[in-house]
Amino acid sequence: MNCEKCGFLIYKSAVSPVVCPHCHTLNTGNGPPPPAKRLKRKLMIAGVTTSLLAAAVVGFLFFQNYQALVALSQAGNSINRYKYEDAARIITKADKDYFVFGATRKKLSLAKTKDEAWLTASQNYQKAFALVGQEKLAEAKATLALIPVDFPSYGEVESLKAAIKNTEVAAAAAKANPSAATSETYQLLSQPDLSVLKIYGALFIDGWSKYPTDWVANSKLKGIAFAKNLAVGGTLRAAAPDPIPGNVL
Fold it and tell me: What is the DSSP letter of 2?
């Protein structure tokens, strides 16, 4: 056994109590372990504590990275719903709040750059809408030209471009033949047209609901009247300005 005070090896098979020949301490067998054993125990406790702390830190970092990936997924869903400002807010928060690894950091950076481009494109689209309402078609076309073709809402951009083109064509025709441009003919709907009107009305409501309220306000449109066999200057038309200001046939 080892001395309880100095750790000196007394006898391999000594039975306590026994006096240590080195420091003359009476060993009863109930004292603290020798210094070597105490040091070993401390080292074991320190090792276990360090391992637990390291595991906790690694787990925390992985959780942070996971939270950033969840945020990227949420931002992608917002982009798919054309809510670019929401996506920008989510990405900015994730970039600021979470610790991420290299691959996730790259994804986050790319998503942030892409969404900033989509947000700018969305703002240009809204600006073009306002310009159309102000009848500034040339400025509206120039603004739309700034929007990249891979913009998620580019279908709406093409629709606005087509509307601008139709307006320009109608304006050119009216300028070339003012009298023909104002000669509208149409027939009022009657009871037999009700079944067709229900089908067309449902399609119209579905399409009209997609226009932003700001665009409707900027267009200064007050009313829409349905008719059949509508023609302007003898040419059949799907729609035409009504003689009453603010209305469309």
Answer: B
